[in-house]
Design goal:
Layout (H helix, E strand, L loop, with lengths): L6 E5 L4 H12 L3 E6 L10 H4 L4 E5 L5 H8 L4 E4 L5 H6 L1 H22 L3 E7 L22 H20 L2 E7 L1 E3 L12 H10 L5 E3 L5 E2 L1 E3 H13 L5 E5 L5 E2 H12 L7 E3 L14 H7 L7 H20 L1
Parallel strand pairs: 1-2, 1-4, 2-3, 4-5, 5-6, 6-11, 7-10, 8-13
Antiparallel strand pairs: 9-12
Helix pairs in contact: 1-8, 3-5, 5-6, 7-9, 9-11
């Protein structure tokens, strides 16, 4: 499927992954509508794409069914990235239901009513919970016990049900640990990479919860956005895919690389007690996405972290003016 000239909605299009998808769609010459409530997304994430003249912004929530209906009218395709983050769902579980589950149902219902042909959506590796084997592939059973993961499991079932009844094509991506420029690095819900960088900015040691043996499967956001575009262009439908690097990185290794790229080699990580409720290992199989979509990651972890560092410096310079 060619995307040039297609009218595309990106929910959560001002967020980390969503805004990079928008960038890729602009390269494809698609006409893009960003649908975002800007609770976590930022308009500055869209600055580059807005200059193209191909992007329109609708500031609204996916719980607003009337605005969804107006926005989706006449559109061809949808990327669905809008969601409440994992820690926010743990703090306020009803959000996992009202936004991540009911909101997704609203998007799917509107896609069908508007005649949208295909949706590419963000699921999460959280559906796997604590992995029973590694690398975790898409056949792994649901082993989740968190509110965020529960919502994503429900969403995956809605995608299947809408495809069977209404013929709405879909691909859903089980993201592993996506990182890159435009990640929030201030506020209550910052991830481990930004927490480490924030400490290093103050010449303080990055704090590792536990002994540092916990692992992440880190995927650069540009690669993740490219996977979404490849999925939309493909003839594949009704499938779930990991977006995975196929590599495991321990928190200790991550801290060491961050110290290296920050040029603060005299600083050593600090180890503190960890939250026992959190998953200790993430390592996904990248085989299915490679075989069916031709997708592989191309950005090394060290290069991706250098990109984040450069972006952070740009942001801090702008804010200092």
């Amino acid at each position: 499927m060619e995307l040039a000239g297609k009218k595309v909605v990106v929910t959560g299009g001002a967020g980390l992954v969503g805004s990079h998808i928008v960038d890729e769609l602009v390269k494809e010459k698609a006409e893009v509508t960003v649908y975002d409530n800007f609770v976590r997304g930022k308009r500055e994430n869209l600055k580059k794409s807005l200059d193209s003249g191909l992007v329109t912004i609708v500031e609204a929530d996916i719980c607003d069914r009337e605005t969804l209906k107006k926005t989706f009218a006449g559109k061809d395709l949808c990327f669905h990235e809008a969601a409440v983050w994992l820690k926010a769902c743990q703090d306020e579980p009803r959000k996992a239901l009202e936004i991540n589950t009911t909101g997704t149902f609203n998007v799917l219902e509107t896609c069908v009513a508007s005649g949208i042909k295909k949706i590419v959506a963000a699921s999460s590796s959280s559906v796997y919970g604590d992995g029973l084997y590694f690398p975790t592939d898409e056949k792994h059973p649901f082993n989740n016990d968190l509110f965020y993961g529960a919502g994503k499991i429900a969403d995956e079932q809605w995608y299947r049900a809408f495809r069977k009844k209404y013929g709405l094509d879909f691909i859903a991506f089980r993201y592993l640990n996506i990182y890159g420029p435009r990640q929030p690095f201030l506020g209550a819900y910052t991830d481990v990479i930004m927490n480490f960088f924030n400490k290093l900015d103050e010449n303080l040691p990055p704090r590792i919860e536990g002994d540092g043996s916990q692992t992440l499967d880190l995927v650069y956001v540009g690669d993740c956005a490219r996977a979404n575009i490849m999925a939309m262009k493909s003839a594949v439908s009704g499938e779930y895919f990991n977006v995975s690097s196929g590599k495991e990185t321990t928190l200790k290794e991550l801290a060491e690389i961050l110290i290296k790229v920050s040029g603060k080699k005299d600083i050593k990580p600090e180890y503190v007690p960890r939250d026992k409720n959190l998953v200790t290992r993430r390592f996904g199989s990248a085989d299915k996405a490679k075989s069916m979509l031709g997708f592989t990651v191309t950005t090394s972890l060290e290069q991706g972290l250098k990109n984040i560092l450069a972006w952070r410096e740009e942001v801090k310079k702008r804010e200092a003016k």
